Amino acid sequence: MRRVGLLGGTFDPVHFGHLRSAVEVCEQLQLDELRLIPSARPPHRGMPGATAAQRLRMVELALGQGGGLQVDDRELQRERPSYTVETLESLRQELGSDVALFMVLGWDAFCGLPSWHRWESLLELANLVVLQRPDYDLEVPEVLKDLLAARSSDQPERSHGQIICLSQTPLAISATHIRTLVGSGASPRFLLPDAVLDYIENEGLYRPSTKD
Ligand SMILES: Nc1ncnc2c1ncn2[C@@H]1O[C@H](COP(=O)(O)OP(=O)(O)OP(=O)(O)O)[C@@H](O)[C@H]1O
Ligand SMILES: O=C(O)c1ccc[n+]([C@@H]2O[C@H](COP(=O)([O-])O)[C@@H](O)[C@H]2O)c1
Hints:
Blueprint: E1 2-9, H1 16-28, E2 33-38, H2 52-63, E3 69-71, H3 84-95, E4 99-106, H4 107-111, H5 122-125, E5 127-131, H6 142-151, E6 163-166, H7 175-183, H8 194-203
Parallel strand pairs: 1-2, 1-4, 2-3, 4-5, 5-6
């Protein structure tokens, strides 16, 4: 069965925490491809600092011609909040039922899962891959403890319905920290690809507003 990974994110901006995790998930789960899916109108958070088109462009620049990792812009084609369950439904329509989908989430995102739109349907559409996040110390909600006990697997072979907790190289990098660095005039170099940093500088992203 073909195995497709999905890493959704605001990517404001994309950084090496996302990219290194994506490479390691691909290798550990022997995926045929992994798609980074920028969230056009991210639910559950304020307006990003960069537009959806700018965030998509930064992901494209980060990936370059890199084999295996791809960008999927389907959430920019919808005039609605970017609900993950609708993205998975659209992917299932495109790819069919005979493909294993692996939706990748950091620990922080996983802990917030019970507040997502139609969250209980997510496992009917995909497997979940949960990554550690060294910069977050969050308690997992009880309902997710039960879900982890019931659905965890070390050897995921099904098209959907299983949860895989992976240990990837822990990188305490966040987009929030990068925006803060840029906003204070400090350099975020080596936390994200140079091509993305050049784009941030050329577009004047994340600088403090000049308005009073
Ligand atoms: N350093 C990291 N290690 C592992 N997973 C990460 C890392 N950074 C982000 N992720 C995960 O990648 C997905 C997309 O993250 P997102 O684009 O919100 O980046 P972020 O760095 O968390 O941004 P922000 O600081 O703006 O919230 C989420 O599931 C998140 O948990
Ligand atoms: O579907 C939802 O209700 C939902 C709620 C919060 C987050 N998400 C998705 O989770 C992914 C990570 O979100 P974020 O805010 O950490 O970038 C991204 O693809 C979001 O669209 C999805």
